[in-house]
Specification:
Elements: E1 7-11, H1 15-26, E2 32-37, H2 52-55, H3 68-74, E3 76-80, E4 84-88, E5 93-96, E6 99-102, E7 105-108, E8 112-114, E9 126-127, H4 132-144, E10 148-151, H5 155-166, E11 171-175, H6 182-199, E12 203-206, E13 210-216, E14 219-225, E15 230-232, E16 235-238, E17 242-244, E18 260-262, E19 267-269, E20 272-274, E21 279-283, E22 288-290, H7 295-309, E23 321-326, E24 329-335, E25 342-349, E26 354-361, E27 364-371, H8 374-385, H9 390-395
Parallel strand pairs: 1-2, 1-7, 2-3, 7-20, 9-16, 10-11, 10-16, 11-12, 18-21
Antiparallel strand pairs: 4-5, 5-6, 8-17, 13-14, 14-15, 19-20, 21-22, 23-24, 24-27, 25-26, 26-27
Helix pairs in contact: 1-7
Length: 396
């Protein structure tokens, strides 16, 4: 029988990591809880970076997930500004800040890192949005620039473009797909998003490939598109996706193919668990491994992993949830809207821009999405939770 843990180390001090630390205390764990975070800031929420922080509606301290005094009240030892660099599963130690930190149980919650544009390291005027410091630097540069070019029209690129337009900053949104967020929400909803951005005077250059970022004397001067067009700018936001932050785990023997591979209990190996954006776990209902980069999953999975570390876990089988705020529109979804091969509107209409739509794969419902329809969407969630047959969903 495995001895109960007396020392739990959490690597990652953002939503998943801090939620797990809180949950351990709420579940009665009275041993040592050590949180290691690479950033110098107290753990903070990331969704507001592209919205409230970028717009100036919130100051940075409002993003903090826990006030400073709560760390002491909960007995959480938090080491900030210290990056984990290696894991020794056999010795049950994490290398961080030049020292070995011992653990009985380890939670990996290091999230993801933004993909960068090749050859632009150190180039002034090229930005990513992942941290508070990233966002504050980009906000200053965006206000100083005559126009911002956003490369990538997924979640982050579309939300940042909307926020910038709300500030009155001219924006060109560039991406290879024919509409914003088409991979995430499908062509019908993506088309509406494109119309929404066009109505707010975003210069849409979609279905277009970026050939390169031009620069002079170490500063960006423009973005070159396929076909020879050049977009002049001194400020570029690169929003071309992310990759799991697992480089520090190389050589650990863990499954690192697209994140940290886990079983249904969020366990990656003896004494090692993972949660949040970095975790790829087996979802029994879907019968496959999933890795979900959404805020709600970070919280829910962290709580599930905390219980599992204490020997009281259950298979983690959530109904995934995400949302996006762009202009005055809130889009919310349950389940999996990406990769669906069926789409239908259940209530409202696309033309009215108030509706609930259902997504299917094969003969089953896999997702539902609401555009300015939160109450109706909540009722439709049951279609996903119950994996309702497609025809039954349409009949209902």
């Amino acid at each position: 029988m495995t001895a109960p843990p007396r020392r739990i180390v959490v690597v990652g001090a953002s939503a998943a990591g801090l939620t797990a630390a809180e949950s351990l205390r709420a579940d009665g764990f009275d041993g040592d809880v050590v949180v290691i975070g690479a950033e110098p800031h107290l753990g903070y929420d990331r969704p507001p970076l592209s919205k409230q922080l970028l717009s100036g509606a919130w100051e940075a301290d409002r993003l903090e997930l826990l006030p400073r005094h709560r760390y002491d009240e909960l007995g959480i030892a938090c080491h900030l500004g210290v990056a984990a660099t290696a894991l020794d599963p056999a010795g049950r130690t994490v290398r961080a800040g030049g020292a070995d930190v011992a653990y009985d149980r380890l939670l990996i919650a290091t999230g993801v890192r933004p993909r960068t544009w090749p050859g632009t390291d150190g180039l002034r005027g090229v930005h990513v949005l992942r941290t508070i410091d990233d966002t504050l630097a980009f906000k200053e540069a965006a206000h100083a620039a005559g126009r911002v070019v956003v490369i990538g029209a997924g979640f982050l690129g579309a939300e940042a473009a909307a926020t910038l337009r709300g500030l009155g900053i001219p924006v060109t949104l560039v991406g290879p797909a024919p509409a914003p967020m088409v991979r995430q929400v499908g062509p019908d909803v993506a088309r509406l998003l494109g119309e929404l951005h066009a109505e707010h005077d975003v210069d849409l250059r979609l279905g277009v490939t970026v050939r390169g970022i031009d620069h002079d004397d170490g500063r960006v001067t423009g973005v070159r598109l396929a076909g020879g067009t050049s977009l002049s700018t001194t400020c570029v936001l690169v929003a071309i996706g992310t990759a799991p932050a697992t480089g520090w785990l190389d050589g650990s023997g863990l499954d690192l193919a697209d994140g940290v591979g886990c079983d249904a209990m969020c366990q990656a190996g003896p004494g090692v668990f993972a949660a949040g954006d970095v975790a790829r776990w087996f979802h029994r209902t879907h019968g496959t491994r999933l890795r979900i980069e959404h805020r709600t999953n970070a919280t829910e999975q962290a709580m599930a992993a905390a219980r599992a570390m204490l020997g009281a876990g259950q298979p983690y089988e959530p109904v995934p949830y995400f949302w996006s705020d762009q202009y005055d529109t809130k889009i919310q979804a349950y389940g999996q809207t990406a990769g669906a091969d069926r789409f239908a509107v259940l209530s409202g209409s696309l033309e009215e821009r108030r509706f609930v739509a259902v997504y299917g794969r094969g003969e089953r419902v896999v997702g539902v999405l609401g555009w300015r329809s939160p109450r109706e969407l909540l009722r439709a969630r049951a279609l996903v939770a119950g994996a309702v047959p497609w025809q039954d969903a349409l009949a209902a």
